[in-house]
TrEMBL record:
Record-annotated GGDEF domain positions: 427-568
Organism the protein comes from: Marinilactibacillus psychrotolerans
Record GO terms (molecular function): diguanylate cyclase activity
Transmembrane segments: 6-28, 40-57, 63-88, 109-127, 139-162, 174-196, 202-226
UniProt keyword annotations, A-Z: Membrane, Transmembrane, Transmembrane helix
Keyword Disulfide bond: no
GO BP annotations, alphabetical order: cell adhesion involved in single-species biofilm formation; negative regulation of bacterial-type flagellum-dependent cell motility
InterPro entries: Diguanylate_Cyclase (IPR050469), GAF-like_dom_sf (IPR029016), GGDEF_dom (IPR000160), Nucleotide_cyclase (IPR029787), Rev_trsase/Diguanyl_cyclase (IPR043128)
Pfam families in the record: GGDEF (PF00990)
Name listed for the protein in its UniProt record: Diguanylate cyclase
Any single Gene Ontology cellular-component annotation: plasma membrane
Entry keyword Nucleotide-binding: no
Domain of life, per lineage: Bacteria
Amino acid sequence: MLSKKRQFITWLVGLIMIPLLFFVVFYLTAPAGLFSEPSFYVFIFVGALVALFPIEVRGATLFLIASVSISVFLAYGLFAEMVVTMIATTVVMKQMRITREESYRFPMNILLFQIISILSAEIYYLVNPILLNPLNYPYNILSLTVYLVASITLNRLFLYVLATEWQKKVYGKIINFEYIFSLFSVFYAIPIALMILHLRNIYSTFGIIIAAFPLIGISIIFKLYFSSDSQNRYLYKVNGLAIKLNEQQNVKKIIELYLSSWNNIFPVDTIYYCIIREDQKIEKSMVYHNGHIVECKESLDPISSHVILEEYWFKSDMIVYKSFEEWPEIIHSVIDYPAESMLIFPIKRAESVIGFIGITDPKRKAFSKNMLFVMPVLHNFLNNALANAYNFEELKINSRTDHLTGLSNLRAFEQNINKYNQTRPDNRISIIIIDLDYFKDVNDSFGHQAGNELLKQISILLSTFVYEQEKLARYGGEEFIFFVPNKTPDEIIELAESIREKIEKTAFNTHNYLDDRELVTVNITASIGVATYPDQCSSIKELMMLADRAMYVGSKQNGRNKVATINEGDIINERQAILEPDKTY
């Protein structure tokens, strides 16, 4: 978007130069009685009619006005050609649905075409006396070819300079498909222009209208062809992105790739990624704008407060809004940037809507039929990729998580401790193993469901002792295991004693599932074993075994509700361990 200052300068220069150039060219080139010639107005009408069929060629908008421009130039001179081109250009730009913020493009393009018309005419007047006319036709075809090629080339050069130097945006290569396609117009534009003049000489103004039919027919054919080509190119790019999406197994990375890739396929302004939380509130999670993704985590109103989203929630289908006036008023709070057109796509999981993608553009009717046909295809690929990623993440979590308590399982715990030891081999590593005393009595007295409730509550209590790199896991049954780095053996014993005291002093509430689910209070104690590497053992593998032996032999077999430790190499028999007296608690 051009800055406000440059927009003002563009308008100022246009308002001064456009009428000035018209006046000068009219004074120098306009034939007498031009405005009383019916054919002149028919030329204007035909030019405007052709402009109603703009052709989208790989992101660029072209219109086949060259034949009308050449014929009116040869019939009435430069001024008449400038008038016809200006009106046709205005019609095309209206077709492009230019917004108020982009209205500066009207004076910029009209002035650009004026300058191109003047320079192309000067080139024609310069070469026409020099170039041979091998066909002895009233109009020199070689001179007209030079005129048309000069006009096309100058247009391309001026647009490149305006885009890169004035608008400060990427324009691409000067010589590209659009330029080559425009040069191709030499083969039909000049013959049609000469046909228009010939029929005009025979049938007057009616001859111009007759000659306009093949020109409009060619415009429609090209429009349909390039519409199909555009759709195929969209689908090709969409398939490429779909492959990349399916290669990802992380939900966040899929969303980021999806948002950042849109502008490589479809010309859009802003994309919003919102999720619908379990409490039915909308959370605006990411916004893509001007090539950047911003994470916002902004909590909005409940889904039921947004009419547009509520409709979307139940329909689970694409919603299209062509202009700002069509939006329900309450949706305005979701939008951060000026917009007219809006699309909403559902994000689904197991046939339920869990979020949505909102796409906005400052232009009215910004989304073409081809885009509206292909965009849902891309979004289906997103939903499939997200479904795979969600399933993968769930599988990954389930393979590393205890389903009852939500803590890590033993496999994940061992991976964490080994990874830590590999990256920090010189650091102390301590293990605390916690075994609940007489837990079987809870199951026998109140039912296994009561025991499960107790395990959940104790896992929450133990989690309050976990900080930073420390890890807590369910060791199995009623046992828990705690990994703590960078603490001395005495500090670990002190921490373990704090855990033991907390469990002992806490009254846990559960239900008696064997007797009408009566609420009961359960008090329980824990036997705890601790060990520290390398102070008490020589390997990580031995560390867990040592802590486990300390818990069983030092605590369980010595009255329970204790914290115990044991050194590697101490002799242990089935009933009793030889423990240092000051190391048993």
